[in-house]
Design goal:
The complex is a heterodimer. Chain A is mainly alpha-helical. Chain A is 71% helix and 0% strand. Chain A has a domain of 233 residues. The longest helix of chain A has 34 residues. The chains are: A mainly alpha, B mainly alpha.
């Protein structure tokens, strides 16, 4: 058990270490651009600020949790897909549609009692996300169109749906720029003593054990994992891969949609035009670093959430632009994918724990699904 | 004409044709210009996927190349001010040429990383593409903010070649020459390369081998094709097109860099590749069609069909412009799902190749 846990954690942990190391080198190399001379201690300053800004105070910790909340949910969405052998690049679109659904219903119920408005607004987001996940799932199950391509296309279609609705029918007539109306009473209540620690944090935290239970303790989860590991075997065992693909994509969309709904109801309180987010790729990073395991996803989301929370202070104190976080995230992923480098650098014995071992993913790109 | 336009329903079709005849000569040049990065990106994807490697990192490759090309050209301009354009050669200065070369080299370099991850490490190819996209956005954004303090001067941009005036003044077809030939070097290269690649794919030894490796690598290996080497070569050469596409952003269409400026063009390129059934000419056609859709949507807003065509104008002005923009993505899904004219990818795409061991 301990041995297995060690194997599971080792490669991701080493990837993070190497990512931070490469990040430090990038900072030193680019330090002349920041203030005209090489600063060997710049990484210490930057990472110190990053830690201070993410876990250095009560407010910082809350900020980390707030940043981690959508990452947990969207990461679970992508990770669930991975378990079924599906690569959901569409978390972005599902997130946006979920956000839109919540903004729409939240706006309608702005004057209603919070006990009615909040659950219904959340539900709207969840349903919108689930529908937007259902579409690529059904396309894959019935036509074999690969979900990677269809979800990428759906992400852009979502952007245009949003642009149309927010500048058109859903536009707040009294706002100076295009946005939906305020969600009023549908806004998520704050945790006591916090500035923006909304209860969405608790929802994300609750989703982790629920998804864990779904995957590892329920019959459905067993079937999902079986289809991901070997669709042919799963079919011969009497499971129905088509239905499971549709279901998994819908649940995946549901989780991403919930993430979007929470961002709107908890943070912005309305949906502005050009509501942008890089959640789609961030969620993939979280799912990969967390090895698609709900607990791993939680840890990875907390790590990336902490980086995002601390990035502001890092920019102020060390002059490192916040885009450094994207670089770190990408480099960590690179080492996860190229775990041969990690094994070589750290002399780790070969054991199947890299993401190459993750069953899946591109084997049915395009037409030839084996369902 | 009134008679034709008056026919119920079909009359609308005639009106549409009349409208297109009216506006196409006006918007054709910009359609060709805007289709360029998409077509080039599709060619990059073509080189990858025809040899069996998925590439969703085209967007990141373009963005990196756009950035480095611009930085190189701007730096050259700062170091050697007062460069004069080479006469009659697209207004090219040494700085612009250096920028272009650096952009191409960047595209190839990023492709080396993609090739190594997907061919040698046998990592999931979609993850490799994702990594390229994330790192490209992060790294170019990071560096762009750092150097924006020093405000690098612009290196200007390439200018269009002007074809003989007689050609462009030809009745009925003159506007086509204007649209396709009165263009900068990257657009013209794209047009030439689409034809060249198409011929090579179906008429050359390289093309046959590439198709074989993309469809059935084991069979190809059996007859003596080095699958690994061919894949490496094609993926890296494909980077040239992503590099050119990147250079288009900062050295031809515009002359400065903004974070995330490729704005999804790499993903539309993927759509064009699929819609064009994994062929270079098809990709170009799809790119032209996609940008037309957007351009026509814009045209309708600024010059709606009127007069005789008022009926069509009323109908189209009710359609939100976003529909025209979203159309390319929608038709790609439809084509992929096989509702009309199914488009199938190369059979071995996405599958890492592993030689059978000798033992």
């Amino acid at each position: 058990m301990i041995q297995r846990l060690r194997d599971q954690l080792l490669i991701p942990a080493l990837a993070v270490v190497m990512g931070l190391f490469v990040g430090a080198i990038v900072m030193i190399v680019t330090s002349p651009l920041i203030d005209g001379q090489f600063q060997l201690d710049l990484p210490l300053k930057a990472y110190g600020a990053l830690i201070d800004g993410s876990v250095g105070s009560f407010n910082a910790i809350i900020q980390t949790l707030v940043e981690a909340t959508p990452l947990v949910l969207a990461g679970l969405a992508v990770g669930l897909g991975f378990k079924a052998g599906l690569f959901n690049i569409g978390a972005q679109g599902q997130f946006l549609l979920g956000a839109l659904g919540a903004a729409l219903v939240g706006g309608w119920l702005a004057g209603a009692s919070p006990w009615v408005a909040i659950p219904l607004a959340l539900l709207a987001g969840v349903i919108a996300g689930a529908i937007y996940g259902f579409i690529p799932g059904a396309l894959k199950a019935f036509t074999g169109a690969h979900e990677v391509v269809t979800t990428i296309m759906l992400n852009y279609i979502a952007l245009y749906i949003l642009a149309y609705l927010i500048t058109g029918p859903l536009r707040d007539p009294f706002a100076t720029f295009a946005r939906t109306v305020d969600v009023g009473n549908a806004a998520l209540p704050l945790l006591p003593e916090t500035r923006n620690g909304h209860i969405g944090i608790l929802l994300a935290a609750a989703a982790v054990p629920i998804v864990w239970w779904l995957l590892f303790r329920s019959t459905l989860g067993f079937q999902i994992r079986a289809v991901g590991a070997n669709p042919d075997a799963a079919r011969y065992a009497g499971m129905r891969p088509r239905a499971l693909i549709i279901l998994t994509m819908s649940v995946s969309g549901l989780l991403a949609g919930l993430a979007g709904a929470i961002q709107i109801l908890g943070l912005t309180k309305h949906m502005p035009i050009g509501y942008a987010s890089s959640i789609g790729f961030d969620a993939i990073a979280v799912a990969l670093l967390g090895r698609s395991h709900p607990l791993g996803v939680l840890l990875a989301a907390l790590l990336f959430g902490a980086m995002r929370a601390g990035s502001g202070l890092m920019q102020v104190r060390a002059g490192i632009p916040v885009q450094m976080i994207d670089v770190l995230q990408g480099v960590i992923l690179f080492f996860l994918a190229a775990d041969v480098i990690l094994r070589w650098v750290f002399r780790v014995r070969a054991r199947g724990t890299g993401i190459g071992q993750e069953s899946t993913v591109t084997r049915s790109y395009g037409g030839q699904t084996s369902i | 004409m009134d008679v034709l336009y008056g026919i119920p329903l079909i009359g609308l079709l005639f009106q549409l044709i009349a409208y297109l005849v009216q506006v196409l000569p006006l918007i054709a040049p910009i359609i060709v210009v805007l289709a360029t990065p998409i077509a080039l990106g599709a060619m990059c994807g073509f080189m990858n996927e025809r040899s069996g490697v998925v590439n969703i990192g085209i967007e990141g490759m373009m963005l990196s190349a756009a950035f480095t090309g611009w930085v190189a050209a701007a730096t050259m301009t700062a170091l050697f001010p007062g460069q004069t354009p080479i006469a009659g050669f697209f207004g090219a200065t040494p700085a612009l040429v250096v920028g272009l070369l650096v952009a191409i080299a960047t595209g190839m370099l990023v492709s080396v990383a993609h090739a190594w991850l997907s061919i040698s490490v046998r990592a999931d190819q979609i993850i490799s593409g994702t990594i390229i996209n994330i790192v490209a956005v992060g790294a170019t954004g990071y560096l762009n903010i750092l150097i924006s303090g020093t405000a690098p001067p612009t290196a200007g941009s390439f200018r269009a070649w002007v074809p003989p005036k007689e050609l462009m003044d030809l009745p009925y077809v003159g506007w086509l020459f204007d649209a396709f030939l009165n263009q900068g070097p990257i657009v013209l290269t794209m047009l030439v390369m689409a034809v060249v690649l198409q011929v090579l794919l179906f008429r050359s030894r390289w093309g046959l081998r590439t198709r074989a490796v993309g469809e059935h690598p084991k069979a190809a290996e059996t007859v003596g094709v080095d699958v690994i080497r061919l894949r490496y070569r094609n993926v890296i050469l494909g980077g040239i097109f992503a590099g050119l596409a990147g250079a288009w952003f900062t050295l031809e269409y515009g002359n400065s860099f903004q974070g995330g400026m490729t704005n999804g063009r790499g993903f539309i390129a993927l759509a064009a590749l699929i819609f064009g059934r994994w062929t270079p000419i098809g990709g170009l056609g799809a790119a032209l069609l996609f940008t037309s859709s957007e351009a026509i949507g814009t045209a309708i807003r600024f010059q709606p069909p009127s007069g005789e065509l008022a009926q069509l104008g009323d109908l189209l002005s009710g359609v939100p412009s976003q529909v025209f923009s979203a159309l390319p993505y929608l038709v790609t899904i439809i084509v992929l799902a096989g509702v009309v004219g199914r488009s199938l990818p190369p059979a071995a795409v996405g599958k890492p190749y592993q030689r059978e061991s000798v033992s």
